[in-house]
C-alpha cells in the first residue's frame, strides 16, 4: 500500500499516529541538521520533518522540486503552526522515505503565480494542471456537472447518448468531417450539436432528455472559442416556453447553491430582444448595473414603436448629429469631474479600431446644476439640460454620446457602457445576475446571399401569432435595400437566451413539430424541397408519425464554468484546450498521417500553393 | 399547460379529480356508442373513455394509432380493472380532446413483439425507440451510468473531460481521422480511448479520474461491434493491483444493487490467465457452472508446469489422438443417455466452419457403471474408466473429446463447453457471476511481422519480477518457429480483466511510470527511438517530471448494459446504433460532402477502381 492517508486530511487529533504518505515535493528547506519538506497531493499539503538521523540518507538521495516520494512517520503537533492551511497544525516526523520517481526541474514554477508564459504552460499542460489555480477550475467544472446531473435527474430527465459520427448538414458549413474507410468516398460529420437527435428522442416519447456532451465546430477561432466544446443539452415534450424558463432557471439556481453557496431566490428578470437592444445595445445585457442607453435619435428603419428624441440634438448646426443615423447616450454616474485628460482618453478609446467611432461627445452634469459639454458652441445650456433629462442623468454624472450608423454606433455604445461599468467597479466577479432575453427575431438578413437565414436554427418555431405571416408571404426579397420592410423582418421566434453577467450562457427555443411548417421554414431559408429531403428527410419523416410539441435549450458548459469561476477565458476551465490555431501544442496535433492511412481512406491531399 | 399529470401516475386515490393528459394513442376500441383509448407516454398507459357525447366529434376527427392527443376529463374507477398495469384501476372520462399531431400508419407495430424487421426498425429508429422493450434498455443504461457516477463520486473520483480531436497514434492503425481546415494537410484523430490523457492526469496529480466517454475505432465491424462505443474510463494514483481490484469490484457490486437489486456479497473470484486458458479454454470463462476442460494431452510447448495425461490416450493405435497436438475433454453432466441422433448432431456442430473440428469422440459413463464410447475399438473399458477419472466425470455423464492443433482445439472445446452450458440451462440471464482474470502475458507474438506486440497496450507494466527479463533480453526473435522459447513469451503483465458471465466487461493494468522502462517497452515493440518520440514524446516528457505510480481500467459500457439487460447485442442498448457496415441507416450517413468542403479542407478523393 502506497499510503495510509492523503496529504490533506491529518489534523491535531491524529497526533502520534504512524502514517504513510505519498505525494510531490513542493518545497525543501534545510535548517542545520533538520530538513522540512512540503508534501503535496490533490488533497492538500502536509509538512514533513526529516531529523538528523536521515540527513546522510538525504544527502545521498537529495530531494528536488516535484520529486514523487513516499514517507513513513508519526504525526506531531507543530511548534510553528501555519493556520492558513487545514493541515498546518501538524507535521510528520519521518522515519523512512523512498523516492518513487525523480523529476527534472520544471520549466516553470508550480505555484498560483507561476513564472510560465502561455505557450510554455500549454506545451507542458500536465505540469500546468498541477497548479492549484487550474485544479480549482477543474474541480469547479466537476461540481457544476454533478449539480446539473443531480437536478436534472430529480426533475425526471434521462441522460441519453447521441452519436458522434453523423451526417454533414447545412447548419453546418463548419462541420468537421471524418472519412469512412468502410464506405470509401463518404464522410461522417462530427455534431455541432445533438439538435436533431434530441428532437427525434422527443418524437420517440422520451419526454425529458439531457446530455453533457462534446460538440464540434470548425470555425476560425477567436480568442475564446474552441473547436471542441461542451454543452449541457436538454429537451422536453409537452411544454410551452414558460415551462422551459422555469425548469432551467431552477437548474442555474441549483448550480449557484451547490457550487457557490449562493441563494438566488429572486425571480429571474425577463426582457424582450428589442428592449435589450434598445436599452443596452446588445442581446446579452449585463444588468448588474443601470447606465441604460438613451436613444436620442433613433434610426428611422427599426424600433418603429419607440420614442424618438432627435429634436433635442438636430437642427443645431451640429453636422455630426444632423447626419448621423442614430445618436446614443449613456449617463455615467459620478464622473462629471473627469479631467480633459480623462475625456481625451475616453475619446481615444472609442476611436480604437475595435470600437471604430470617429469621436465622442460628452456633457458634464456639474454638481452645481450647470452643464458643460464638448459641443457648447452648438448647444445652449438649456438644450444640454433637456438632453440630461432624457438620459436620466443626475447632477454629478457624465453623459457620453456616440453618433453614426446604427449597427456600429449601437455596438460601440454597448461596449462603452460595459467598459465604464468595469472601470467603475459595477461588474463584480462575485455578483451574479441572471436574465432571460425573449422574443428574438426568427430570421436574420444575409446580405451576401440576399436571403433570410435562421437566427437560432431552422427548427425554431415562430411565435404562434406570426405563423400566418410566415406562411402567407413569399420569402423573396425584391429590394435588398428595403429588406427591413419585408414582413419576415418582424417575425418573432419562440426563442430565449439565458444571460449571466453580460454573457450568453444558454439558449433555446420551442421547436417546430409539424411537417408542413418545417417544410415551410426550410423553403423560407431558400432550401429546395429536394435539398430539404436529402438533408433532413429523417426529421421530416419523424414528424409524420406523431411528433409531440417540444422545446429545449443548451447551455455552453465551458463558458458557464468560466463565469462561475470569475474568469473571462474558457480555456482555463478545459483540461486539455487547443490554442487559437486549433492546435494541441502538447500533443503536436493535428499532424500528418501516413501513406497507408491515405491509401485505406482513399483520399489524398490537394494542397493549394 | 399541456398536461397536469403523466399517463403513469394516476391511481384510485385520485378518483374524481379533473386532469389534463397528453400522449400517444396506443389503441382505439369502439364499443357501440363508447370509445376506449389507451393513451401512452414515457411513464405509462392510462385508459380514456370517450362517451356518447363525443362520438360525433370523434367521427369527424378520428383517432389513429400514434396520434398525439390532449384530453381533459375526470378520473373514475374502472369497472373492468386491469391489474397488470399500475394505472389499471382507473380511467379518464373525457370531457374534451384535441389532436396535437396526426400520425401516418407506422411501418411496424409499436409493441414488445413488433412485426418490424431489423432493417425497417433501424430506418425508423425513432419509432423503434418508442417500444417498451427498447425504452427499458435505455432506462437501464441511464441507471447504470447514474449508479457508476454516484459510486465513483463517493470514492473521490473526478469526472474530467479529455479531448476528442487528438493525434493519430499507432495504438492505432484503426484511427478515424479528421482533416483540419485551419492546418491544411494535417489531421486530428478521434481517440480509441483516453489512455494517454488519463495517465497525464495522474502525472498532474488528479489522483482519481473517471469519465463515461465515447471512443472510436475504425475496424471491420463484427456482429456486435460499433465504430463508436462508450467506456467507463478510470485511473488512480498511488495504487497497486489489489487496490484497483477492490475499488472496481465495489463499483460493479454497487451497480448490481442499484440497477438489479442484487446483493452480491461474495468475494469476486480470481483466476490467472493461464488457469483460465487451461480450465476453460479462453480468457473470459463463464464460471456460472463447472464442466472444466480436462487437458488429457497437453501441447508440449506451452503450460510447462501443468500435468499431462497423454499416456491415457496415446499408443492405442488411435491415430487421431496419437497425432494430435492436444486432446481436450469435458464431462457433460447427466447426458450419458444421449441417442445416436444426439451425438451425431453434436458431431455436426463441432464440424461447422465456425468451430472447425474434424470430429468428436464421446464416452458415455452409464448409470450402471459401464462405459460406452465412439472409439471402443481402440480403448478398453478400463482405459475409458481411467479417462473418466481424470475428467472428473460421474456416472450419468457424457464425456466429449476434441483433438487437434492447440489453438483451434482449445477454442473449439471452449465453445462446446459454452454451448452445452447453454443447452443444459446453466447460463441463466438472471444469474451473475464475476471473475477477475489476472497475470496476462505482457506480449503477444505477431506472426506476420515476426515481432512482439503489446497484448493490452504499450503502457502496461510487466510484473515486477519480470522487469529484469524484459530489460536484459533482446526482443529480436531469431527463430520464428521457436518464439515460445523466447524469454518474452513468459513475461507476465500487471494486467487484469473483469469477466461477467463469460464476457469481458472491463480490463486494465498497472502502468509503466518511469521513462526508461517506457522507452524499453517501445523498443521491445520494435519502435525506433525517433518514432517513439514522435508519437509519445509528450508522455515520455511527462514521465520526467515526477510521475506517480498509477493504474486503472476501463469498462465497456455498452456491453455491461447489454449483459445486465440479459441481451447478447450491444446495439439494443444504444439509442442510435450503426449497422454492420458502420452506416446510420436512419440518417443515411456517412454520405458525400460537397466540393466546397473538399476545397476548404484541401483534400480530394482517390478512389480505387
TrEMBL record, chains A, B:
Binding positions for ATP per the UniProt entry: 217-219, 226, 504, 556-559
Source taxon at top rank: Bacteria
GO cellular component terms, semicolon-separated: cytoplasm
Record bears the keyword Disulfide bond: no
SUPFAM superfamilies per record: Class II aaRS and biotin synthetases, GAD domain-like, Nucleic acid-binding proteins
Pfam annotation, one family: tRNA-synt_2
Native organism: Panacibacter ginsenosidivorans
GO biological process terms, semicolon-separated: aspartyl-tRNA aminoacylation
Protein name in the entry: Aspartate--tRNA ligase
Record lineage: Bacteria, Pseudomonadati, Bacteroidota, Chitinophagia, Chitinophagales
Family classification: Belongs to the class-II aminoacyl-tRNA synthetase family. Type 1 subfamily.
Location(s) in or outside the cell: Cytoplasm
Stretches for region Aspartate: 195-198
Keyword entries, A-Z: Aminoacyl-tRNA synthetase, ATP-binding, Cytoplasm, Ligase, Nucleotide-binding, Protein biosynthesis
